């Protein structure tokens, strides 16, 4: 049976078996390659050469370079979601909760620039949309809870539902990261957050606040 005809397995069933030692060796090189080149320029063979992991070992765990990259991104987004959940605990004000959430996100991408570039710059949107990482949206339950509490306190515009919120959130993320990347990453993403948050808050807060 050819590699192309192998039935697709659920990513989680397959990738839970990946040894941490292999992840530590492979994942940083993958993110580095995808952050330095357009997606079409990266191949399994170039990943193998950069990481020292054989193509056969890579294909043992991943169906393609896209499958490999999005497995990494899923893990990173889950890590980011956990960090958001921990950092916003105990905050009462909706404004402060959302400000802290965005600060955690941008601080994470500052410290993991290869993740930001791979996810927001290197990959075309149509590729994103075909992946589990795009559909699952690991932080969605956190966003829903934040919105619910903000609406209960009367601090959030009641026209903002989870879909509109996520549209605004990703618009801010894309704008911030694209601008930062275009100008050669000359500043930290968190340093530009003051102005970006003012825009974000005006879009989701109750009119007049």
Identify low-pLDDT runs. 1-15
Question: What is the CATH architecture term?
Answer: Orthogonal Bundle
How many alpha or pi helices? 12
CATH topology, anyone? Tetracycline Repressor, domain 2
Structural category: mainly alpha
Rg, Cα atoms, Å: 19 Å
Q: What is the strand content?
A: under 5%
End-to-end Cα distance, whole Å, is 63 Å
How many domains, as an integer?
1
Secondary-structure element order, as H and E?
HHHHHHHHHHHH
What does this structure look like?
It is a single chain. The protein has 209 residues and is mostly helical. It has a single domain, classed as Orthogonal Bundle (Tetracycline Repressor, domain 2), CATH 1.10.357. It contains twelve helices and no strands. The chain has helices spanning 11-15, 20-36, 44-51, 55-61, 65-87, 94-111, 113-122, 125-129, 132-136, 140-152, 162-182, 193-204. The chain is elongated, with a radius of gyration of 19 Å. Mean pLDDT is 86; it is low at 1-15.
SSE topology:
Blueprint: H1 11-15, H2 20-36, H3 44-51, H4 55-61, H5 65-87, H6 94-111, H7 113-122, H8 125-129, H9 132-136, H10 140-152, H11 162-182, H12 193-204
Descriptive labels:
single chain; 209 residues; mainly alpha; disordered N terminus
Describe the structure concisely:
The protein is mainly alpha-helical and 209 residues long.
């Amino acid at each position: 049976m050819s590699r192309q005809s192998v039935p697709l397995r659920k990513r989680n069933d397959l990738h839970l078996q990946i040894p941490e030692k292999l992840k530590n060796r492979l994942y940083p090189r993958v993110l580095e390659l995808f952050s330095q080149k357009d997606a079409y320029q990266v191949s399994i063979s170039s990943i193998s050469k950069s990481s020292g992991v054989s193509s056969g070992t890579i294909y043992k765990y991943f169906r393609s370079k896209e499958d490999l990259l999005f497995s990494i991104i899923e893990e990173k987004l889950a890590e980011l979601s956990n960090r958001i959940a921990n950092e916003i605990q105990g905050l009462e004000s909706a404004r402060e909760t959302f400000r802290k959430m965005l600060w955690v996100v941008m601080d994470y991408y500052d410290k993991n620039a290869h993740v930001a570039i791979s996810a927001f710059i290197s990959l075309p949107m149509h590729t994103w949309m075909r992946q589990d990482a795009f559909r699952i949206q690991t932080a969605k339950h956190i966003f829903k809870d934040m919105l619910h509490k903000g609406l209960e306190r009367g601090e959030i515009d009641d026209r903002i539902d989870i879909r509109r919120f996520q549209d605004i959130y990703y618009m801010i993320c894309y704008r911030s990261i694209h601008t930062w990347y275009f100008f050669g990453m000359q500043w930290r993403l968190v340093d530009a957050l003051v102005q970006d948050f003012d825009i974000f808050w005006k879009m989701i807060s109750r009119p007049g606040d």
